[in-house]
Design a protein that fits this description.
Blueprint lengths: L2 H7 L7 H9 L8 E4 L2 H11 L3 E6 L12 E5 L2 H15 L5 E6 L6 E9 L3 E8 L3 H5 L2 E5 L4 H10 L17 H17 L3 E12 L2 E4 L2 E5 L3
Antiparallel strand pairs: 1-4, 2-3, 2-4, 5-6, 5-8, 6-7, 8-9, 8-10
Helix pairs in contact: 3-4, 6-7
Length: 224
């Protein structure tokens, strides 16, 4: 049973961040290295394996608005900071099934958004644009009906108003358009092959150097 079938069987309409990324990874999409932990021992091992600094996040299928609730700790630099962040997250999550996601800290000054929405008329549609806090502020996104090919993906990147963010700028290299295209094409495939998926939100997709890395993701399923 795959993760989507399991979630639906449990009556859930969302995957946790970890489940979402594991699902995306199966389609060849580059996501952050991360581990889910529920106790101090596992936390210490995970942080040591991934390597400091790390990011700690609350992780649960029922969890939303992690930032507003103080459930994300960035740039955690050592074991003492990790333990403090772990206890803070667990105490404030208010979810018996909650855990903590230990994630590599991806450095990059440019954030993009990639998504999927299932439209009643057009079916699965792929979305691309500026990510992070700029997604809602600037609303600089474009859409294509799935499936798409490489030419379509490249056209999407040219159509956003902030397309220069993909070029070499301020000492940062140009984005790897080949890998970005692969992500957009893969999202289209996911939409075509998985009728149970209503939405996918990958935000931010950080340009680590030139390569795109999915730092946060959410898969929303059709109501059961």
């Amino acid at each position: 049973m795959n993760v989507i079938e399991q979630a639906l069987k449990q009556g859930r309409n969302t995957l946790s961040e970890y489940e979402s990324k594991e699902f995306l990874k199966a389609y060849g999409i580059h996501v952050t290295r991360e581990t889910v932990v529920k106790d101090e021992s596992a936390l210490k091992d995970a942080a040591q394996t991934i390597g400091y600094p790390v990011v700690l996040k609350g992780c649960s299928p029922n969890l939303s608005h992690k930032t507003e609730r103080g459930l994300i700790h960035l740039d955690v630099r050592n074991e003492a900071e990790a333990l403090q962040a772990f206890h803070h997250i667990m105490a404030n999550m208010d979810d018996p099934d909650g855990a903590v996601l230990v994630q590599e800290w991806v450095r990059g000054g440019r954030e993009l958004v990639v998504g999927l929405t299932r439209d009643i008329q057009f079916g699965p549609c792929i979305m691309f644009g500026l990510g992070g806090i700029f997604t809602e502020i600037l609303e600089d996104t474009v859409f294509r009906v799935a499936p798409i090919e490489k030419m379509d993906a490249l056209e999407m990147m040219k159509e956003i108003r902030g397309r220069k963010i993909l070029e070499a700028v301020r000492g940062m290299p140009a984005a790897n358009l080949e890998k970005l295209s692969e992500i957009l094409i893969a999202v289209g495939r996911i939409g075509m092959e998985n009728e149970a998926i209503q939405e996918i939100d990958m935000n931010p997709v950080v340009l680590a150097g030139s390569d795109p890395v999915v730092v946060d993701a959410l898969v929303v399923l059709k109501g059961s």
